[in-house]
Fold these 2 entries.
Entry 1:
Amino acid sequence: MENNTILIKNALILNPNNFINKPQDILIKNDLISEISDEITDENVDKIIDATEKILLPGLVNTHTHLSMTLFRGLADDLSLDEWLNDNIWPVEANLNGYYCYIGALLGAVELIKSGTTTFSDMYFYMEDVAKAIEESGIRAVLSYGMIDFGDEEKRKAEIEENLQLYKNCHNTADGRIKVFFGPHSPYTASEELLKEVRKLADENNIGIHIHVSETQKEINDVSSEKGLRPFEYLDSIGFLGPDVVCAHSVWLSDNEIEIIKEKDVKISHNPCSNMKLASGIAPVSKLLENDICVAIGTDGASSNNNLDLIEELKTASLLQKVATLDPKVLTSDESLAMGTINGARALGLEDEIGTVEVGKKADLILIDTNSANMVPDSSNLSSNIIYSANGSNVDTTICNGQILMENRKLTTLDEQDIYKKAREALDELKKAI
Amino acid sequence: MENNTILIKNALILNPNNFINKPQDILIKNDLISEISDEITDENVDKIIDATEKILLPGLVNTHTHLSMTLFRGLADDLSLDEWLNDNIWPVEANLNGYYCYIGALLGAVELIKSGTTTFSDMYFYMEDVAKAIEESGIRAVLSYGMIDFGDEEKRKAEIEENLQLYKNCHNTADGRIKVFFGPHSPYTASEELLKEVRKLADENNIGIHIHVSETQKEINDVSSEKGLRPFEYLDSIGFLGPDVVCAHSVWLSDNEIEIIKEKDVKISHNPCSNMKLASGIAPVSKLLENDICVAIGTDGASSNNNLDLIEELKTASLLQKVATLDPKVLTSDESLAMGTINGARALGLEDEIGTVEVGKKADLILIDTNSANMVPDSSNLSSNIIYSANGSNVDTTICNGQILMENRKLTTLDEQDIYKKAREALDELKKAI
């Protein structure tokens, strides 16, 4: 990485639960935030950004995606998870290859950057091709290979080998922007043997784990009838859970399971739009937060959402908890903002690097332009203005690892129109192949 | 109105439940859609719009707003309806005047136009000042004065007189873009006498009615204990209900009330974001639709939402019904789109003029640019792409009554920056006056 300094002038900095009501200057040196103060006069910088009338936040953290599935946006809607997966998604996925996953990931990366997400945690196939897209796009990612064995020993070995190869080839690559996790798909698609092996390898190699747990009532019923335990109880009984496990969805939770999650410091990735669209259910997020459990946010894939706009997702999260509990005071805009930033960083084990705007942390920052029809007048409560009024289109500038990825809504690392063209062609080819 | 012709070329027309999978040309003459066909070669027009890669829809219809309250966006959040109104909104409203309502309405009009809404139904105060903003902005509106008497006879007479004056001065003005309804606030703030008088005057003058009904459990309890009947039963018992009554919210409904609504052909304006944010509850929309009741959509005021983006509102409506019923097949994107267009037109008694793209109807049209990160690849299901993937920022062009109000996201009738400045100043003054 070449030497690089950026000076951001006059930004209102909004950290989760900490807002300085006075514009600040921020100096970025290479990949790090080097100084924050009332005025930085250093003129000897490579680039000056005027952030007057803009809010500066930590880059958003999307903790559960299947980025290549952005190709399948709108492919099938208004269906149950079962019909959606079995009859629509899996037949198309059967014809996937590395190139399609690469193009899908590039398309997703464009959308992430344009809506203010700088870090995402992904689980899918052809992950080295996804890594290539991440390398090129400049964003930060935690990648895991979605391991499914359905109890087949040979498949299990191959799946684990695939995820280990991903680790060996991609972990800490792209100037450290790419980390690799294990991705056992779920307790109903990954066998007990696979889960135990993953736990062992995760401990040995200090690798985090990304898994779907308790998404639907059907899953609860299936796991309960097979194992005699609810999903989190089962995972706990085999020693799988720990602070390095990020569980997506986690919709249907008993009090005992919430106790287990709290005790084992398991991280939860809440996916409200997907859970609503697939009618999976409403996760008890406010109860989890009351129990000091780390709840982060995720969009899930764009084909069950159908976009990757994390600001929209955070609004939906807040509003859904309020109506589900009939208590308008739960999941405030401050709490929601924390879910989208520092909680995400904690979930991914990256809280020392990202999730807040602080000297010494990575320069993963976004600027939101408040001079927009949906954000005027600017409330004194900036988190409310962002969570409840804004959407991803209000993000003006996206910086990741000290590199500007978007300025004035123009991308710097990716060619939008070329990616759109290739994505359309890829989907056409995939549909023809069914 | 001067003579005016616009030719839109190569648009994919998406009507509610009717999509022609072949680009069409649309000729607008003055305020009306004059021709739709495969190719219109008339070159003798004032303006040609190239709609290649764009979806053309009827302008969206927002059936419940308090447009001037856009000034109060983010003023108070994460509170119950009671605390929000009593401790925050009403103290600021005490210092409102016509100028503030005019500026608030202009600010709201900017947001409506920029997010694709061409018609809205408003209830508030200083409505002649709101009418002035509508006249200038070029959008279409149904305006009602929010009548509250709390049983006070003198107040009642003054309130009715105010709404009648609004009718006399503004109904059918602005080239017919402004209609006036009666706006009795609710069954708990308007007395039985007021409601009966409104019903009588509505019949005599053929004026529609806009009212809040059954928003919160508290309202059900209060009305039930005072009247011995639930709100819709009470309104029915005094002969108030009919096909010209649009009821906002309608969250808490008994089976008997749903029967009454159906039998009297009452129109419902569903406001999911507001109902969620204020934790009012979840309206049984899919059950209402099953009963062939006309359900339209509304954002409510921007201070309980906190924006006026009707596409976001329609997505929330669909997703909320799916999760509330645990049935992913209810409130499909097609049904949602109908709620935002033709159902809104029907609710406002304007189905002969707006709500679909048809020859002979008013030229109230919007173009959505699908060449955007959150909408690629373009699904073959256009309504899914709009309802589930898009938001208001994807609207490229807004036309109302044959006049272009926005083209390539640039407003033609209003000065955005000037309005933002005045709105900020107005809110500052209002806050100081408390």
Entry 2:
Amino acid sequence: MKRILIVSAHPEPRSLNAALTAFAVDHLRAAGHEVRLSDLYAMKWKPTVDADDFPDHVSQEDRRLHVMRDSEEATLSGRLAPDIAAEQEKIRWSDALILQFPMWWFSTPAILKGWIDRVFTSGFGYGPEVPPPYDDNGSALAGRRALLSVTLGARETAFSDRGIHGRLTDVLHPLQHGLFWFTGMTPLEPFAVYDTDRMPAERYAPAREAYARRLDALFTETPVPFRPLTGGDYDHDMRLLPGRERPGTEGLDLHTRPAPRPGLSR
Amino acid sequence: MKRILIVSAHPEPRSLNAALTAFAVDHLRAAGHEVRLSDLYAMKWKPTVDADDFPDHVSQEDRRLHVMRDSEEATLSGRLAPDIAAEQEKIRWSDALILQFPMWWFSTPAILKGWIDRVFTSGFGYGPEVPPPYDDNGSALAGRRALLSVTLGARETAFSDRGIHGRLTDVLHPLQHGLFWFTGMTPLEPFAVYDTDRMPAERYAPAREAYARRLDALFTETPVPFRPLTGGDYDHDMRLLPGRERPGTEGLDLHTRPAPRPGLSR
């Protein structure tokens, strides 16, 4: 039995995203897991970071709001706004985190970005008082699996290797590597449903079945092989050392370990 | 004389982002341009897309909210929420758009993501009633230059070609290519100030001067050479045709035209 937190971000309770969320809750519970749900629209989640997030700051009118410093002080002193503290507690409790959202403008809806901005404070997700980032053995949130479940209006070809929207893996890099891996979580390959703009009803059952297989493998499948910062691959300026990558590799692919070539024993 | 819209997203009026915004407004006006400013925190911008954005929808309680369809209908019928319509009018008015923000979690603050989510509706930024995307000659917002001005807590090396955070150009791809280029705008190289977490005061003047040089070149510098969808480089499934790229290129670099090699006349 594991503990799973699902964070869902869609304004319409009858949407595909809401259906996938409800399905995941039921499916994981039926498998014996504990599940908690943060349905951000239903919770009327406040998306904007501001001084109200750090109650101690409010009384200091003459002091500039410095988001990183003030969020860190509030985190370490246990004086964050209660809605933020509650979400942090859910993440600490969890063995796995699932983010369910429609891709809007090649990223999360603003309400989910605001959950990330406000919850992953310095002192909680990273920062001087916790171990260094990019390390699944020791970073702040290490030990948790992390899955993006995303719906996309576009066709899959447009997000394929040569698709004009960019590879899905590159478009989601800020979340997979920048949020999950940075804080020490273990990112899995995203689960994606394409061409959902006016999706016919008969496509829902196959999508749900495909999602069920991913949920069943949540704690067993091989994660994305991002490189740890502290594993000897990077220099002191956080740059990948020469020669560590497959020859010709560029861009974001530098930061995954090269896959063993098929047919080559290692 | 040109018309420039600056959209700024920081909660603290005494922040570096606020200073760069104020500097840009003054500098561009001193050069004879017209400038409008959307200071999202000062405006208390609503970040979340919901049914209130489309007043005609509210009266139809039994109808599911379908964000793309409902936003498109509201856009084409002139029935969007007034705050959205006002921002669309500013963009239509502009010859250039500047987004000023601190990078939070490898993306924009939620309030700015919510400006993007709500303002760039189907029917305005893209959609069946406007020309196809990814074309600076014809897409919905063609004719406008677009500049990201971003502050980053990290050091520049961590966002360099081999830096662990990913190349800045890849991390900003969802905005540069996914928002600006998709809607037909002409993206420039981003302006970035690094290592801003506790930036000493003496670094502000050089940063301001560097920004001034970029602002002076807003309408003259060479833009990022993204490929147009309709220029013959992509197939009908929106995939780059074989052989169009510099050999060995992969990932997001596929979608820029190869630079002429130094010393090679073309």
